[in-house]
Amino acid sequence: MDKYTFNDGSQRDLLNLLGTVPVTYQGFSYNIPVRLWILDSHPFGPPLCFLRPTPDMVIREGKHVDVQGRVYLPGLQHWSHPKSDVVSLLNEMSLTFGNEPPLFSKPSTDGRSVTELSAILAEVTTGISGTSLQTKEPSPHLPPYSKVTVLGSGDLAMACVTSILAKEIVERLVFIQTSENMLRGGSLELEIFSLPRVDSSKDMSASAGSNVVVVTANTLGKEGSYVNVLQSNVELFRSLIPSAVMYSPHCVLVIASQPVDVMSFVAWKLSGFAPQRVLGTGCNLDTQRLRYLLRPLCQPPAHQPWLIGEHGENQVAVLRGPGRDGTPDLTADHQTYEEAARRAVQGLKEKGQRSWCVGLSVADLTETILSQHGRPHSVCTLAQGYHGVGSEVYLSLPCLLGGFGVLEVTALELTQEEEEKLQNSATTLRNLLQQLTL
């Protein structure tokens, strides 16, 4: 017997059972530690079920588990004695957790079987009280688990899905189609050819517990003034972002919808997240392209060029990096480098960005976030306070990314002209945002 505290603060002595539920996940056996509280209404009422993580375990919040570790299953919601019993509940728990493990750590060989656990619980059902199921603490390590959701439709969404899948960085990838037209949305082909580890749905609950939520949805194909079309995008985001963060409250939002500077800001405002957890693809793709083209000229490699600021024609090319002593130190022949860099930047403007290219960029960002290694990228982030930007706008800046989104914004040494370009872009974006209703 132990004291259980209800939501209203009241306490009651209840029988609680401790044990592990065996789970088979991707061919390996694990034991999920659980606690069952048996209410006075048992067997006519369901028990309260909780995960029982060790200090080294992390609860994976999702459709069937909340942040406190309470378990929610159909068998609990539709409990009906004598049809419902603890035996069937434990089997349902084992099957459900086999599809989506609720804890992460190393595998364990310890744990009693469902049959043994059920036998003890059967004694409770027949009226024997004071029963305590004890087992050794399970090994503290369960399998790593990562889940990514892509919200959108069309070529860009499909490019993100296939690029992330090709990286082999996720255990589960969910595609939530935002278009009503299955033929245009892309989900038809996913349902026909059923890619491994990919689930296609129109139900946002399928995204629950995602580490990263990628948003590609937009309405830019509609007719009307630019501001009216953007407002349509805002309304679309209003229907998506709050729901997405409700199901994945600890995720990082990666925005690929265009115009990315504006829509990243809109997503931040609608999410209620800290700005570090909402970022846009921004200048990441063009920065990576530029670095690749100039790779033979960059010495040392750590001093790489950056494209920052407003995405598109007004992005700012920073063609030097700080040397070891804080002085510019990119190449021995700086003039040759500058000329090559400017030609490359102009070529990138003419090249543009295709859906499959942006999909690869999104996969690149997703990999960095999931790996939690803190790699630098030029992504849209809250620029207020950097380089003389005083307003709340999103612009691309060099950012270290990790599991919580933007870990750090790296300040570059900019010329007065470069800072003025950033500030002008900030003013333009702020004026545009003021015309939208968020």
From the alpha-carbon coordinates, what is the Rg to the nearest angstrom? 26 Å
CATH superfamily of the largest domain: Lactate dehydrogenase/glycoside hydrolase, family 4, C-terminal
CATH class of the largest domain: Alpha Beta
Strand arrangement, major sheet: 9-8-7-10-11-12
Q: What fraction of the residues are assigned to beta strands by DSSP? A: 15-25%
- Please summarize the sheet with the most strands: 6 strands, parallel
Give the overall pLDDT as a whole number. 79
Could you state the order of secondary-structure elements as H and E?
EEEEEHHEHEHEHHEEHEHEHEEHHEEEH
Poorly predicted parts: 106-143, 321-333
Shape: elongated
Oligomer: single chain
Report the count of strand segments.
17
Tell me the number of structural domains. Answer: 3
Structural class by sheet pairing and helices: alpha/beta
Helix percentage range = 25-40%
CATH architecture annotation of the largest domain: Alpha-Beta Complex
Q: What is the number of helices? A: 12
- Remind me, CATH topology of the largest domain? L-2-Hydroxyisocaproate Dehydrogenase, Chain A, domain 2
End-to-end Cα distance:
52 Å
